[in-house]
Amino acid sequence: MIAIVLIAIAAGCASALMFASIISGALISVLLFYLAPLPLMVAALAWGPLCATIGGIAAATGLGVIFGIPYCIAFAVSVALPAWWLGHLALLGRPTANGAPSGNGASPVAPDLEWYPVGRILAWIAGFAALTTMAALLTLGWDATAISAALRRGLLLIIGPRDAGSTGEIEQWVDALVIIAPASAAVVAMMTLTLNLWLATKITTTSGRLHRPRPDLKSVDLPPMTLAALCVAIAFCFAGGLLAILAQIVAAVLMTAYALAGFAVLHTLTLTLKSRALWLGCTYAIVAVFLWPVLAMVVLGLADAIFGFRKRYLQGRPPPLPAA
């Protein structure tokens, strides 16, 4: 138990330092800030959720004492809580069959475990990304006008002094960025949480401390209610005011989740292609360079949720068995 406490404190200190590094203003601090949940996620997957809980409490308390209560709350909501809960869900399993004693009096057969679905974990990640983005926006104001004005002031401050001739064009760009900023921030939060959990899984798998089989990411299947929630969120995007901003955040994270599901569909549908690596590499490169082709992945993920492309493909043409 003492070893777990020491590991938890070390993970909490690392996470807190990465979170607080954003104060320095250095470019590398942005990367460290977004990777702040990683130490606690590794602790949760390798030594259990209790380890992440102890580390998160220690880190939040330290930040609160040094920098004040707002930093403590921000760290607890955006870093410690997601790291603990996602680590808990990743290790959550239930037996699919009761162990049956053998006829010669040997010990019972260990039951197979059904692990918490990866798609549901992705839905939880979307929920945390939406929650943290909404909480950050509400610190700027309680209505759409105040939030937009605060975002506009912040963007103009980042841009800095500008020539009189280019003022009008820059302000047009700023106005456009203010409109897309909430949804963009939600997408970034969604992707960074997903990346942190994936990296934590890779680290614990490499170290041999992951107490579950490595999840099959090709099987990502979002809960059926996710599609209904996306439709409702898109409908409220046209309501106007604060409700529309919050609905845009929810719609953005859910569409990002379906984009990730679309990549899973693509990995499944290309299983039997000889040039599979080339096709996948080109797809990722195009999405990374141009960004907008990710909409095709969103459509593919939505189409699979409605028509079940992966299930039909695997039932009609199962993938080849790996070579012995």
Structure description:
The protein has 324 residues and is mainly alpha-helical. The chain has two domains: 1-93, no CATH class; 117-160 and 174-318, no CATH class. Helices cover 73% and strands 2% of the residues. It contains 13 helices and two strands. A two-stranded antiparallel sheet has the order 1-2. Helix 4 packs antiparallel against helix 5, helix 5 packs antiparallel against helix 6 (118-138) and helix 9 runs antiparallel to helix 10. The two termini are 42 Å apart. Mean pLDDT is 85; it is low at 99-107.
Give the gist of this structure:
The chain crosses the membrane at residues 26-47, 59-85, 121-142, 176-199, 225-245, 252-271, 277-307. This protein has 324 residues and is mainly α. Helices cover 73% and strands 2% of the residues.
Number of domains: 2
Question: What is the H-and-E element order?
Answer: HHHHHEEHHHHHHHH
Instruction: Please tally the β strands and state the result.
Output: 2
- What structural category arises from helix and sheet content? mainly alpha
Strand order of the largest sheet: 1-2
Silhouette: globular
- Tally of alpha and pi helices: 13
Keywords: Membrane, Transmembrane, Transmembrane helix
Transmembrane segments: 26-47, 59-85, 121-142, 176-199, 225-245, 252-271, 277-307
